[in-house]
User: Fold these one by one.
Assistant:
Number 1:
Amino acid sequence: MKVQACHKVESNAVEMEGAEGCRVRWLVGEADGAPNFAMRQFEIAPGGHTPRHSHPYEHEVYVLEGAGVVVDGDAERPLTAGDVVFVAPDDVHQFRNSGAQTMKFLCLIPNSAAGKKVTVAPECGVEQGSK
Amino acid sequence: MKVQACHKVESNAVEMEGAEGCRVRWLVGEADGAPNFAMRQFEIAPGGHTPRHSHPYEHEVYVLEGAGVVVDGDAERPLTAGDVVFVAPDDVHQFRNSGAQTMKFLCLIPNSAAGKKVTVAPECGVEQGSK
């Protein structure tokens, strides 16, 4: 059994194309012997966002702190602490912090995500108002 | 994509042998099309606990609110909000609320847990001081 305060887990900048102001901690994963899925915690700075992207595996997300939106295709859906999001495989999605505080959420993925193709989607649906 | 406030998800008493003061919400699962794993939220009343038990699948746990312990075999390890726990397959474990407030945590399991045998362990290691 592993028990750990998550703030003591190493935090790294998310370097993926399209990410801005994002950091990630891998709380539980294959390195711990987790056989099926991994738990990560993301922190997004005010104004920051994850890439607008899709991939052939799911996310299960729980919002811990802050406020923002999840971009669902070309729509924006508001998020606040205590909200849960299921992003199905191949859903185009993006998490954006629209608040003044850090937005913090858990995002879990299957171990089978490793090596799967991630497709970065253009931002125009959100940033040019072409919904 | 599913987005939902978790307090709006149905909460049910945990009826399993050895559980006391526990309620569960299934936030994401196979009913949502989740292909690999399920996210549940547990609430344990002050003095309450999950069964002391083991099973051949893992838990990935994140403590949201409150304070308690996780029984790890015959040892107790303190827990507070922001702690993460990886319970490996076949680890004997129990979550106990030792605080004055409701203890709330996420507990994720693989879909393959369905139908797997759960073994309830005796409480003597904790309650009779025979550590």
Number 2:
Amino acid sequence: MTKGGKDQMSEKVIRAIQDDYADDYAWCYGCGRLNKEGYHLRTGWDGEQTVTIYQPRPEHMAIPGFVYGGLIASVIDCHGTGSASLALHRKNGYEPGEGIEPPRFVTASLHVDFIKPTPHDIPLKAVGTIEEIHPKKWKIHTKVFADDVCCAKGEVVAAVMPKTFAQG
Amino acid sequence: MTKGGKDQMSEKVIRAIQDDYADDYAWCYGCGRLNKEGYHLRTGWDGEQTVTIYQPRPEHMAIPGFVYGGLIASVIDCHGTGSASLALHRKNGYEPGEGIEPPRFVTASLHVDFIKPTPHDIPLKAVGTIEEIHPKKWKIHTKVFADDVCCAKGEVVAAVMPKTFAQG
């Protein structure tokens, strides 16, 4: 399992799957590049694992000094759908940055175990391990690190976006 | 189980437990009344159940027309800690609005099942049922309604805030 650590915290995800989402599906508050107010979470490969890095905003506190749990849940959520998209895209023969529109996933379920209070002043690094449970349904096991401390663990079941979602 | 519905959606929580949190613990991005940028979630009793009502901001979308899952998770999270605080406060003989500082909880775990795409243009209503699993640990079962449609179900295990948290 890749850990965090100060050196890795200065990493940036170079080729993120969200950069290739179709414009119609790039509005998510968590990970949509077109949502001006959003977090712009970006998820890429690190070998066989996936990585999302995010610096919480000053206001994202639970109490002063510690990150708000809802933000951690949000990072795990979008990291999960992004990871599933990366995985199915790779299974289909593609990598991010190749200009091919990847499949877009939605979250069926989200679970978070908050292990330790999460310090607020350093970037969070979510590291995901992907499990295919069906061609259209993937499970992503995620650990969230602040420096090299694992502060939360998450599990997302992500499903290919159903047509009903796009009819809104 | 209390449902949502248009009439109830115009409800407002009158006496919220978050109004009574000590100033030091009123900074949460989700439910802290002192966090200027936050959601200001407010949780109160409705009989033996608890209620939190929130109108998502325009930017809180997954795709246009539907609410971003991370926000739903955040509502369930703070609704859970607020509900646990209400429950232990009541067990101790107090109700919100009596000027007594309630116990402050943190989230140990959060689970969300996203059942249906959640429409963006109406307030969300979280309705919680509380289960005591230990004097300092409570489980909150929550349904999130948009109008009278249950769009998500959640489960939070909330624990009395440990001293380590306040030493940040």
Number 3:
Amino acid sequence: MGKAKKSVKTAGKAAPAKPGKNPPKTKPALHAIKGGKSAPAKSPPTAQSKPLQSKLAMMKALTPKPVPAVADDVPVIALNLEPGKLSPAMTAYFKKCQDKLGFVPNVLLAYAFDNTKLETFVAFYNDLMLGDSGLSKLEREMIAVAVSSQNRCYYCLTAHGAAVRQYSGNPLLGEQIVMNYRAARVNRRQRAMLDFAVKLTASPGSVEEGDRERLRRAGFTDRDIWDISAVAGFFNMSNRVASATDMRPNAVYHGQAR
Amino acid sequence: MGKAKKSVKTAGKAAPAKPGKNPPKTKPALHAIKGGKSAPAKSPPTAQSKPLQSKLAMMKALTPKPVPAVADDVPVIALNLEPGKLSPAMTAYFKKCQDKLGFVPNVLLAYAFDNTKLETFVAFYNDLMLGDSGLSKLEREMIAVAVSSQNRCYYCLTAHGAAVRQYSGNPLLGEQIVMNYRAARVNRRQRAMLDFAVKLTASPGSVEEGDRERLRRAGFTDRDIWDISAVAGFFNMSNRVASATDMRPNAVYHGQAR
Amino acid sequence: MGKAKKSVKTAGKAAPAKPGKNPPKTKPALHAIKGGKSAPAKSPPTAQSKPLQSKLAMMKALTPKPVPAVADDVPVIALNLEPGKLSPAMTAYFKKCQDKLGFVPNVLLAYAFDNTKLETFVAFYNDLMLGDSGLSKLEREMIAVAVSSQNRCYYCLTAHGAAVRQYSGNPLLGEQIVMNYRAARVNRRQRAMLDFAVKLTASPGSVEEGDRERLRRAGFTDRDIWDISAVAGFFNMSNRVASATDMRPNAVYHGQAR
Amino acid sequence: MGKAKKSVKTAGKAAPAKPGKNPPKTKPALHAIKGGKSAPAKSPPTAQSKPLQSKLAMMKALTPKPVPAVADDVPVIALNLEPGKLSPAMTAYFKKCQDKLGFVPNVLLAYAFDNTKLETFVAFYNDLMLGDSGLSKLEREMIAVAVSSQNRCYYCLTAHGAAVRQYSGNPLLGEQIVMNYRAARVNRRQRAMLDFAVKLTASPGSVEEGDRERLRRAGFTDRDIWDISAVAGFFNMSNRVASATDMRPNAVYHGQAR
Amino acid sequence: MGKAKKSVKTAGKAAPAKPGKNPPKTKPALHAIKGGKSAPAKSPPTAQSKPLQSKLAMMKALTPKPVPAVADDVPVIALNLEPGKLSPAMTAYFKKCQDKLGFVPNVLLAYAFDNTKLETFVAFYNDLMLGDSGLSKLEREMIAVAVSSQNRCYYCLTAHGAAVRQYSGNPLLGEQIVMNYRAARVNRRQRAMLDFAVKLTASPGSVEEGDRERLRRAGFTDRDIWDISAVAGFFNMSNRVASATDMRPNAVYHGQAR
Amino acid sequence: MGKAKKSVKTAGKAAPAKPGKNPPKTKPALHAIKGGKSAPAKSPPTAQSKPLQSKLAMMKALTPKPVPAVADDVPVIALNLEPGKLSPAMTAYFKKCQDKLGFVPNVLLAYAFDNTKLETFVAFYNDLMLGDSGLSKLEREMIAVAVSSQNRCYYCLTAHGAAVRQYSGNPLLGEQIVMNYRAARVNRRQRAMLDFAVKLTASPGSVEEGDRERLRRAGFTDRDIWDISAVAGFFNMSNRVASATDMRPNAVYHGQAR
């Protein structure tokens, strides 16, 4: 494995696990970086974009402190993929992540072997988690974590558990949904939402009109039901891509918003 | 429910289930319509695009034969969503579907309540299922069906079961993967691929290095492993969106490539 | 493996998969051939019956068209069993199948290694599926398919999925129950029936009075409940014999009543 | 509920639970009564056979001792079915049970509402469990119990647990297979047999060639594999008929061969 | 394995399986021997206690009849653990078991490799199963058996199945809960209790306030709910220690209270 | 609910969730407080011990900082149990907890309604988790967390997740085992240990000699295997008592050793 490659794989973990506890409290990683959303539409991949490795090496250089001894010293994913060339839009998006969050979420580095896949993922993700919806961003993150707990996805529980802690300002809430969403003291509406998302995760083929009716009785519109389903569906995808590739979260998430 | 709305919901089923058995044999629905892929990049949503209902009404008008008595006379999804305004790119894409396939796949009509969601879905899907890959299009469809069988997703089994029949020219293969992929007489490589995809579907949290090693021993590269994971992951998402919304497949699929 | 044996194993698949689409539309395979039912009582096995291989060779000879390239080119079962001597009653029954259906269902060929087992199977089956009952023949086939879907039995889903399509005249209904019976638009009575049969399949030890009460409230008599249970039970047996022996359905079923 | 009916339902329990501990030690109930096997072939149902109620009343009269206080005072099944007319063959078979076993197994009383169903059940059962096979009768009963334990079937565990105790002369063996067949100290051949039967019960759709190969390596012929599958299949049927109808075993089984 | 060790492992089975049917009918093994409860408090382990092997050899000497041929000729557990030195309190407790029950329950012999573990186990157990509670001793044993059935624990089903038979004076009740507690004709209160215990066993993370409410409606106090939970919890522990070590029950249990 | 009672239920949460991040780094809660172990033996419950409520009120008074807004403002358990009288030994033990840890673990407060139950629990627990063993204390805590994750127990994951973080000095390790122990980079020995514990948790009835052999091959002695089984068993008990009673962890755990 060449030097450039290694920098790709470890850049995401460069942020310190412990001292880095106080980064962007009000800006949950990834999702709050909306720039990436419309970028793909405006800036299609171009051959002249600089290779990923130099971008990532640059990011690494920017990282203020080394990963402490307890950090998770492994590549971002367990697959040996050559870094692809990033489009200007994606390059800018990574830069924005670095500036605002202090790091580029590893899931983005994982997709960076292919600029088109990265762009479609970012566009899909940002619309889903940051776009207009009857669900708050916190609620969408709660679904992400409850689904990821059902699927026991280390990457997503770590990254989105941190997001729930940040958005809610309640560290316990994040922990509870990671461990067992039934232990969380959420309101009736949110409980119905999580029940639906977890049932849809555990036995999708058994979801029926009665389940949708329960959501409507809890106050959700049909559009909200779409969004609950779409977010739950998305993390059933992401959980599997992460598990299949042994994707490792940026160590910085662990200490965020505790 | 107004007239326009109704036309949205039933347009997709306008193609006959039985007599329509011989439509585009060589063009599996949706996936072969690559136009939609780059379209979003070029044509962002605009407010001036004509409302979906008129587009869909037009499509309905174009449909040659009425749905026979046995057709599945229900809306595309069980949610009451107002049709959104399609961007020119999406309008063109729907037109292309209608011209080449003879119908617009219902999953697209389902997403059409929101042009951004439709565009990101189409872009993501087309790259995944029609883009470059070490997996053939047939293999990607085989994964789609095996995953959908595990999740018992009526929509995806119908639409992608048809695609397997079409791409393979082997109706039995499509049926077998719908029913139990272990009954299909596939080669060792494809069997390893389906075993991985189904394990990833059934218990994502238990996938480990040994599972990836089995794929490598069966001849897959690390990039192939990404693609297997990404396709399996995608259908774990789509299965759940379809099940959550009771998405109904276009009746025409049932008779295709038998 | 001798020549005679081979003819045993492939005879059942001699009917064409595709062109044979229009065989006995109104006579679902096997079940409609009632002759076999009382035959065993009247004609006990006799040593003078001609060996199975010649019967089957004869059947093969009668088969009008060769299996197309897509056919499932494997033996009827994965066990190497010497064909047994058929009783005159069973010989006549096979002839009747051939005449009326155009083929002998592979399950009968599978049992034909032992005439007593064949006779008791046929007698049991015909009483259950064709005898008097408060359940229509279609309803019994619906149960067969829903149970076989739960157990993912390729043989039974193929053969009885065709029967549902034939009896109902609704190809979609057959597909839906194969894929996920909850997607089928059946009436309340039939839904209660299928719910009971699937619960009985998935967790027999948890069926209790409340489950029977639900059937009664849906309009079923106690005798009907016996029949639902007996049919569901029977396919839990057949699914396992078929899966344990890798029983392969006659290719002709795939194209029937589409 | 009339008097005749009641006698139908309770006759089977007339044998005492405790003092009746010493009935036919060498003749496991039902299975050892081979007369019923060929009877149906010789004696088709006739309208002139005396009504079931008088037969059963007679049996009751023959029962030596009343059921003790701890007996299971419930009807044979939870369905209210009118007793049917027994054919002379079945009448004789019941008499033979009464003479040899001291009671008529409740499963026969349960099927007695319809003589044809009773006859086909008896013929099927007797061939399977008492006919020629490479498996000993004890081995077939061991499969019956291991399958019934997986399915938690009270009726079959009781009746066939007693049969294992009787055939083996080892009360512990019967208990162990009822509780967890892995706790039984059986030989390698029998363990392979039970592993196959239980896997076939728990997840029939995942049985494949490797599983059959394991049986062959343990010394079983292909015909033996059929028999293992057929017995395991049969109890997957019987367990479900028994659970669906809340069939109650004759109290006498509990004390047999302890 | 030395001689002394062997005597440790087989002593527990010295009581005869069959002839020993009539031991302490009114004193269910272990639980009724309360002496052990306060013993630990009074008599801490001392180095001068005689080695376990001589104690157990003594017990063996006291055993009246040899194990019959059908006995389960295996060590108490599948782990090779040196017997520890018993404290005077535990020595006295074992003597008491021997005197009152005619044998020392194998679970105690299993723990006897370490006197502290034995004492804490005995103290915990005796308080739980014999101490004050709104649940009768029979009810606590019913929970033990229902939980052990869910977990398929051979040791606990055998030992506590015997206790249910003894406490209830109803052999059928013990068998039914071993096989499937839903088959037992218990009252509404007891059914609610067993439903809760089994749900808590099968999916502890899904137990919620609604489940506790059902117990309250069935007449249980909050203290009773603690006790139901504690007993169910305890057997989830014991089942696992027994299964992990292949703990074998004293053969005498099998014949008790039939 | 009286005042005294309320103080019982909320005392455990008096430690601050956030600022309290830096308490006893080297003393994992509860387990490191060995005093409780021998206490019960020396000091049996006495009537003259002061009522629990005053003890707990005292503890509350000692708590330095109020629970922040994000704390989990609920009673220790969802059962309404009158506090019992603590023995001097238990009173001293609680005092010791307060002095060394800064709080009394809520599980102890939960058991405090009955001094005998509290003492037997403490004695059992302390021997198991703090006594001599071939397993390190960290390894025992790792088992506790892996088992609790399988059972989705909020209380135990919180309290023992903190213990893993503290003992290991590796916050990531604690998180990983909470989320999916397969994501933790542990050595081969520890992985075998966790695999065994989780299998024993998920399907105890399927553990057999092969599983023990795997532990031996990983370097564990038979005594170690007992300890692994005992710890895994114990948390299968504790998880269920906690889930059944909705036991809530002290808020202070959440921030420990991050």
